Amino acid sequence: MHLNGSTSNKHQEKTTPKLSHIEFVALMAMMISLVAMSVDAMLPALEQIGNELGNNNPNNNQLIIATLFFGFAAGQLFFGPLSDSTGRKPAILLGLILFLIGCVLSYFAQDFITMLIGRFIQGLGAASPRTVSSALIRDLYSGPKMARMMSLIMSVFILVPVIAPAVGQGIIALSNWRMIFAMLLIMASVVLLWFKQRQPETLYKKNRHAFSVNRITSGFKETCLHRVTIGYTVISGLVFGAFSGYLISSQQILQFQYKLGEQFPIYFGFLAICIGIASFTNAKLVMSFGMYRLTLIALYAKSLISIAFLIYIQLNGSNLSLLGLMLWGSGTFFCVGILFGNTNAIAMEPMGHQAGVASSVIGALSSFLAIILGTVIGQLYNGDVVPLISGFAILGTLSIVIAHWTGKVV
């Protein structure tokens, strides 16, 4: 594995994982997939959960997803700096334990508020493996090689949102929604044991920093003042914000608006595959074309596709057909797959000297921005897909403006 920076052979020997390349990718993908599984497996069960726990407003059921994302965003501010102090492993293990606690609380929830508290704790815990894994990878890789590694991990990770809704639907067909949390409990336990036993520490002791609020504040300031880092952090938030709007409202759109019922996981999985294909394609292309150029192309394509479909809807005077939605989604989500790996890698690139703090600040800022925007888009759902497609068009166009503002587009 490629190590970032000038390190001694002794340092290399101590930080290089004993995992094979394939096992490393698989482990990282499974760690970051906890968030996706916690979201996507829950989608078919949202209505049942809301009804059983006393909430009958379909739009309020979106909070079961949104609350997890808020916990996820908050956790990133803590676990990155903690990993700079204690090392990557202890921080990830603590997060996994918190995730398990959140699963148990949600499993036994008897009212909607308790469910939301459990989901917040789940998100808080899931922030650690997702955020600290970026710093762990940054310990070992930099530049296009990091972007390529992130894309390979995303290519494996994307299998989760492809199958997760079907898993959730299968569970509630055989049992009830509470068993989805039992499944998440088992999955997180496997990840915890696998990571604990197989992944060595990647942050050498001499490179660790004492945990302090001042260091977090300083890192936050440096991140926000670096034009490329803050610019692509905001872009990441805008991209994921539009996508979060889709995640939050996808069950209502696909299951009810388009009356897909139990076929919902098939169509949801198809669109997820488009993201996976894009991530795999990006891993192949990024070494030749560079992450800046690919990012800009994807931003333009994503925005233009959404604008074109909005014009079509206005001229046609009606909502999109299911075929139209799939055509829009496949093209748009392919672009999203290109952007997911690259925007984070670009934002992290200048911050190798403080990877833990930077990954926290970048992750937290982009996540808070994304969930606020995604919640707004989701709450605007009124029986048609215009608010969703408009969100992709508007936020995509704004992302292009910011990309040019950073001065790093090729």
Can you describe what's shown?
It is a single chain. This protein has a single domain, classed as MFS general substrate transporter like domains (Growth Hormone, Chain: A, Up-down Bundle), CATH 1.20.1250.20. The chain contains 16 helices and no strands. It has helices at 9-15, 21-40, 46-52, 63-86, 88-107, 112-140, 143-157, 159-174, 178-198, 213-225, 227-257, 264-289, 291-316, 322-348, 355-379, 386-406. The longest helix is centred in the middle third of the chain and has 31 residues, at 227-257.
Topology order in helix (H) and strand (E) letters: HHHHHHHHHHHHHHHH
β-strand amount: under 5%
Total number of domains: 1
Question: For the residues shown, what is the average pLDDT?
Answer: 88
**Number of contiguous helices:** 16
Given the helix and strand composition, which structural class is it? mainly alpha
CATH topology: Growth Hormone, Chain: A
CATH superfamily: MFS general substrate transporter like domains
Counting DSSP E segments of at least 2 residues, the number of strands comes to: 0
How would you describe the shape? globular
Task: Provide the CATH architecture.
Answer: Up-down Bundle
Identify low-pLDDT runs.
1-17
Determine and state the CATH class: Mainly Alpha
Rg from alpha-carbon coordinates: 20 Å
